[in-house]
What we know:
The protein has about 300 residues and is of the alpha/beta class. The chain folds into two domains: about 5-215, P-loop containing nucleotide triphosphate hydrolases (Rossmann fold, 3-Layer(aba) Sandwich), CATH 3.40.50.300; about 220-300, no CATH class. It is about 30% helix and about 30% strand. The chain has ten helices and 14 strands. The protein has helices spanning about 45-55, 75, 95-105, 110-120, 135-145, 165-180, 215-220, 235-240, 275-285, 295-300; strands at about 5-15, 20-30, 35-40, 60-65, 70, 80-85, 150-155, 185-190, 200-205, 210-215, 225-230, 240-245, 250-255, 270-275. The strands form three sheets. The protein has a six-stranded mixed beta sheet with strand order 6-7-8-3-9-10, with helices on both faces. Strands 2-1-4-5 form a four-stranded antiparallel beta sheet, covered by helices on one side. A four-stranded antiparallel beta sheet has the order 12-13-11-14, with helices on both faces. Helix 4 packs antiparallel against helix 5 and helix 5 packs parallel to helix 6 (about 165-180). The two termini are about 35 Å apart. The protein binds adenosine-5'-triphosphate. Adenosine-5'-triphosphate (ATP) binds near residues 17, 42 and 44. Adenosine-5'-triphosphate binds near residues 17, 42, 43, 46 and 47. Pfam families: ABC_tran. Keywords: ATP-binding, Nucleotide-binding, Transport. GO terms for molecular function: ATP binding; ATP hydrolysis activity. This is ABC-2 type transport system ATP-binding protein.
Amino acid sequence: MTAGTTALAATGLGKKYRRTWALKDCSLSVPEGRVVALVGPNGAGKTTLLHLVVGLLAPDQGDVTVLGSSAGTTRTLSRVAFLAQDKPLYDGFSVADMLRFGARTNPGWDQDMAVRRLASLDIPLDRRVGKLSGGQQAQVALTVALAKRPELLVLDEPLANLDPLARHEVMRGLMAAVAESGMTVVLSSHVVSDLVDTCDWLVVLNGGRVQVSGDIEDLLAGHRLLTGPAELADGVAGRLAVVDDDRTDRQATLLVRTGEGRPPLDPRWTDRGVNLEELVLAYLRRPDSAALPKPALARA
Ligand SMILES: Nc1ncnc2c1ncn2[C@@H]1O[C@H](COP(=O)(O)OP(=O)(O)OP(=O)(O)O)[C@@H](O)[C@H]1O
């Protein structure tokens, strides 16, 4: 793996089902080795984007490149693992059968790692998959994906239907695998708090469009939450890029994009940094706001 190269690049990517665009003008670029949080409301186009990345769908517009090659080619598919939303497990198989199936269908299969991982999680190889708990099934599905030794791991809502402890365990297992392999991960989720300690790149999709794509640290450093008198809000909004604007008769709360540093403000304003949940919610509330690299913004 070469440092500084691009794991995932989409240019003007679009996909429509019949006459409706599920994804439109989607342009983004994610460096290798990142753990990407793909967030957005129901129907935003997350699954559609992930299916385009793993070659399950073909674009109707634009293109998507994965690890330097077109998505969906044989060369790309051997380097990518995908964990679909409804975990791709066979209930009637034992866990050992699932591993045998994985070994037959994946040339680079790492059986030792799979067996070690399941043993460390106390998941018996002879247990039928259908008899495992939801958390254990998620761990088996993740193990099957990891044993492929992918360079890009794509997970569509891997935490759906899991209790908080199981969510934590799955994320912890995923992070251990990332630390060991350096692979790029893209995972979609509705629950931003699950992603806070794990992901270092954020993509926000809303209504089939990319609103945000960037390094999470940079994004957090480049936004601030301002609170001040409502009568001064228009003046601030005229100077700064306002992502979200919440006003009562007396008070205004503005989430603004500042770039580096703190903006000079009238002393009647207070300002503070934002957390990931606040940032994501602000963009989702305002589908017309965008924080994208300049070329994509210029087209919007
Ligand atoms: N096979 C399909 N046929 C027709 N429309 C579809 C199909 N798959 C998705 N869509 C539509 O495309 C849009 C995007 O759907 P998609 O499943 O990609 O969103 P999502 O962000 O993954 O949603 P969720 O969070 O609910 O899983 C939605 O309006 C959906 O109804």
